[in-house]
Amino acid sequence: MSRNKHIHRFTKVNIGKKKDYVVFKCNKPECSYYIPYVLAKNRACECNRCAELMLLDARSMKLKKPHCLNCVERKEKDLHDKLKEFLELNDPSLISQE
After folding, report:
1. What's the pTM?
2. Nearest-CA neighbor of 15 among 7, 5, 23?
């Protein structure tokens, strides 16, 4: 039987019943791989938003579904653009002329 090798896409899960035991579990179908939280730092995985290769760092390990820094910056930029568009539609005087 051949094993389907792939890059894991992790989700943080607590699998302990009486005591916390936090792991990163691969959320791809037919993959039961998981790694304990304390051993997961600097492991390569897929971003949960863009599916690009990333490393689990201190920032991403805090998230339930880790994503890369590019996705964080992209989301903040999108939110800023949406806010600016909303303000322009509702009160153009609030936006400074460039």
Report:
1. 0.68
2. 23
What's the total number of domains in the chain? 1
Residue 87 pLDDT exceeds 50: yes
Q: Is residue 39 part of a domain?
A: yes
Query: Mind giving me the DSSP string for 14-41?
Result: E--SSS--EEEEE-STT---EEEGGG-T
Amino acid type, 47: C
Q: 75 is in which domain, residue-wise? A: 10-94
Contact 44, 55 (CB under 8 A): yes
Q: Is residue 77 part of a domain?
A: yes
Element (H, E) at 82: helix 69-90
Residue 93 has pLDDT above 70, yes or no: no
